[in-house]
Write a structure and sequence with these properties.
The chain has 88 residues and is an alpha+beta fold. It has a domain at 14-69. It contains 2 helices and 3 strands. It has helices at 24-37, 66-74, and strands spanning 14-21, 39-47, 53-60. It has a 3-stranded antiparallel beta sheet, covered by helices on one side. Strand 2 and strand 3 form a beta hairpin. It starts with 13 loop residues before the first strand and ends in a 14-residue tail after the last helix. Residues 72-82 have a biased composition (Polar residues). Residues 68-88 are annotated as: Disordered.
């Protein structure tokens, strides 16, 4: 189980993203794709106890590239809510 953050929710218009990957390179590759769609301010990296890397990003959802903004404007909430089985 991964440690959880007890920090407050991100400010309006921002999202916290967690990436867990087997290697730092894989986590950075996914983060780079996200940065192509959203402006990001913070990036933090942590080792995963079982091996691998956990990368945390904070992105500004109001400063997204056009495809991301279009998707955000037309998306609907998922009927599936809640956490994954491995999330706290």
């Amino acid at each position: 189980m991964y440690p959880t953050d007890t920090a407050a929710l991100p400010s309006a218009g921002h999202a916290e993203i967690r990436i867990v990957a087997a290697t730092p390179e894989a986590a950075r590759a996914v983060a780079q794709v996200i940065r192509c769609s959203f402006a990001g301010a913070e990036q933090r990296s942590y080792p995963v106890p079982e091996g691998g890397t956990r990368l945390h990003l904070t992105v500004d959802t109001g400063s997204g590239a056009e495809p991301a903004l279009s998707w955000l404007a037309t998306s609907r909430p998922s009927s599936r809510t809640g956490t994954h089985v491995d999330e706290v």
